[in-house]
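LAB NOTEBOOK - FOLDING QUEUE
OPERATOR: T.R.
BATCH SIZE: 2
PURPOSE: Compare the predicted structure-token outputs for two unrelated chains run back to back under identical settings.
PRIORITY: normal
REVIEWER: second-year student, initials M.K.

ITEM 1
FIELD SEQUENCE / FIELD STRUCTURE:
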Amino acid sequence: MRLSKKWIGSILAGMICLQLSAQTNPNEGYTPPQFADPARTAKIKALAPVIEKMYAGFAVANHVPGYAFGIVVDGKLVVSGSNGFTDLTKQTKADTRSMFRIASMSKSFTAMAIVKLRDEGKLKLDDPVSLYIPEMKNQGLTKDAAEITIRQLLTHAAGFPEDNPWGDRQLADSDEDLINLIKKGISFSNANGIAYEYSNLGFATLGYIIKKVTGIPYSNYIEQHIWKRLGMQAAWEYTKVPQEQLAKGYRWINNNWKEEALLHDGIYGAMGGMITSIESFSKYVALHLSAWPPRNDAENIIMKRSSIREMHQPWNFSALNAKFKYMDGRTCPTASAYGYGLRIARDCDNKMMVGHTGGLPGFGSNWNTLPDYGIGVILFANVTYAPTAAVNLRVMDTLVKLAGLQPAQLKPSPILTQRKKELVQLLPNFTGAEQSGIFADNFFLDYNTASLQAEATAIFEKAGKIISVGEMVPENQLRGYCILQCESGKVSISFTLTPENPALIQEYHIRAVQ
């Protein structure tokens, strides 16, 4: 469709709807992380104008007709906003209830369904795919290739070739179309199990496996077992979405927008066909964040937290970017991998990021989370392959810096605290240490008692007597350190415990803190 330059300019200037709001997540069935902090939530809400400005700039630079975004903190959608149009002809304003096709962000729903079926004992992740699709038997790049497994499909390790943008155009293919493609023989780019290569075909195949295992289409299974339990409004078939909520997709070409045809639901929807809103998707983000940290709370009604954390693990390494730069210009090497339907990254500051991008003709989307920080960002846009990942990363980095966010602190286990108290009582002379019962059987074979005494005595002669003992700072439940405040300085002691029950000290270090 043709639009006047004047109207285009007005849209790009962002004259439409801005909707910043504080919201709560009314959905029940899972618990928020235990490090929720109202004070930091307030800091994030205060940054709403800054965040909106960043998204508005992104929309102008990338010719986005309409977009919606959300910030999830500790299980709640605390800031959300929108701008532009979801339908240029009708001038329908975008809002946080607008339903966008989220493309490959759909993949983690398919992966969650597979893992859920695994938890129920209905399949195994290391099952050969040919157990469910006999036509896959003996297919591979070479004759010595092992059987392709479900886990390899989940992690883009099946040896299938990268299939963007071809896969994007297969969205409406039927089950029969998929099986016929497999029957003809798949063209492989790699031997399976040894490399990462992104495959939409792999996730379409997972959708078919869900149907073979459950007897119902993957779309129905995900709707019943994930969407409804989370209270999400979502769809696979665009004709089932209320017209006033449906976002149409556009391509920017020849200085104008051209409407992209929406494809109907089919087997490739399992890789990228889902349609939903920011308000609904925020509940799914909250579910993922609720899996962290590991704890003893009652489980949620959707999926075991341990299984969600399993989805977040870097199962298939994909890239190392030694020269990666954040938007403020600082270099921060970053390693990337693929989990189960999720992109995983860890940066030079040891921040773990979990999420996924999505791109189809007419749409671009992204969600990204920092599980250790309990925050997530979401962005939906209705222009072809909108580069949403970069701006979301910038938004998330801005939130961490400007709100002064810190990762959740691990609490020390009772045994760490107990051993700390017992160890400090022996310092500096280690009198009676061998009879104390707190050291493992290797300890005095690896550490000479006289050397331990001499080392500690020399340190405390300079630092003076112990005035106070700091809290244990755990690296994990069986390793950590604490700081001793002394008369003339500080001393650090660290130790590691054994796997025995009760756990004993197997390794120990002491040093003066400069």
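ITEM 2
FIELD SEQUENCE / FIELD STRUCTURE:
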Amino acid sequence: MKTQNVLTESESMFREENLKTVLDYFYEFEAKQPNAPFLRQPYGSEWKSMSWAEAGDQARRMAAALRDLGLAPGDKVGIFSKNCYHWIIADLAIMMGGFVSTPFYPNLTADQLREVLALSDAKALFVGKLEEWEQQKPGVPEDLSIIRFPHYPGNSEVGEGLDWDELTGRHEPLSDPAQPGLHDLWTILFTSGTTGSPKGVMHTYFAPAALLYNEQVHNNLKVFEGTEHRYFSYLPLNHIAERVIVELAAIMTGGTIYFAESIDTFAQNLQEASPTLFMAVPRIWSKFQLGILERLPQKRLELLLKIPLVSSLIKTKIQKGLGLRDARIMLTGAAPTPDALKEWFQKLGLTLQEVYAMTENCGGCTLMPRDAVRSGTVGKPLPNVELRIDPDSGEVLMKAPWVMTGYYKQPEQTAETLRDGWLHTGDKGELTPEGYLRLTGRVSDTFKSAKGKYIVPAPLEWGFAKNTFIEQICVVGLALPQPIALVVLSELGKRAPREEVRESLARSLAEVNAGRSRFEQLKQLVVVNEPWTVDNGLLTPTMKIRRAVMHEFYQDKYESWIAREEVVVWEG
């Protein structure tokens, strides 16, 4: 089964004369509104603002410095930093110099950093706003040129390499900045390595140009509507979603990017930025929900929402408290968002639109229509996206003009992922008669129980979304008679009496198991002691669970757990 009326306009719509690179848009707005605020960085209670002209001047000076270091057009330049305005300027400098950006997750360990630096062939590395530079810097080869951002208070002091301010101070702005072609390599984005070593996804300038031009023409998300465009940048900028929907969208709309200073100031920074577009992963939306419920318990909230005048006041207060009172577009993605969570926010007047995409398709695949939400799905294909389901494996396959050119220096993995023009997503799914995509799990996550039956974890895990005592959940059970679910409690769950938590989890377990085949029913829930984090290796830098690592971490305890009769047990 596949969608209809797709790709018919691609040849005419995506001709080169219709498209402009992100750098073309930057030059355009730099000339059109040189003094308008482009980047806003918080320092405590103060915001430092950088105009389009100032950002352009800094970027040209840094591009000149990179050339002076001996870098040649096409050389790879890494960025290793949390989000900040120097990150954006460094990215612009790399483009203006004719180089290729290879940004990395700022929470990589030394070993992980060493691996991606080697895979990327980086000739220089920007090092910036980091929390654990002392532990990470052994991953940087001694002969690699480092350029350090100015220090951001509250973060690691970086003493290595060349100083940003010194370099920009002694170099004149580049007089001949690059004018990259649409089919020149723009960036290499490394996947987070959920199932093995990271792969470097190559995108030319054509990919984001085509994707965002597709949005301009069809107005699915309405990114280009309105006169004010404010963006809040806090998800890693090397992730394709943040890169396209924040950095590139801001440049292409002439908008302003606000940054978060730290986790502690996140809420305040978001309130002050009051973005017109806001994107978050499900875990962030869940934390917002738990924060609201800590102040206003569910039963009282439901009561207040039933009173017309009070309901309006409560919604306005919550939206303002979150910093989303001006948000025209609110997105959720990176992992399927439980319907219960989206419905909960909808009652508060906040419509979360699901986005399903991946690095390999430049962040563009499906979008939930704002006025035609379908529960249990991740939306409909964007215009000029073609979807079909592999009849044998159930895998979701897609085509679009903005799919990657391949994995950097990995022809075998490229050939495995791109077959006959189709991108193999690794996700399993179904297409509804209306053309919506319903995800049913990951191909690689499926495991076989001791009974020889295949278990698909994701649908089981999604069934626990309504339980606010749960923050993280992972279904395991390779070679066990029945699968079990490991649970990390939320702050609400940790503070609640154990018996109350036990009863709540047991009810959720019964609801999830109801109507399922015997072989896929969960035997029990196990409340584990240790949260799953990037530091202990159980999560990827994008906060996805490493299922293979999870299995190795807990497998020695499986037998003792399943030998117990209780349906909810604590790790001990």
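REVIEWER COMMENT (ITEM 2): Residues 1-7 have pLDDT under 50 and may be disordered.
FOLLOW-UP: none requested
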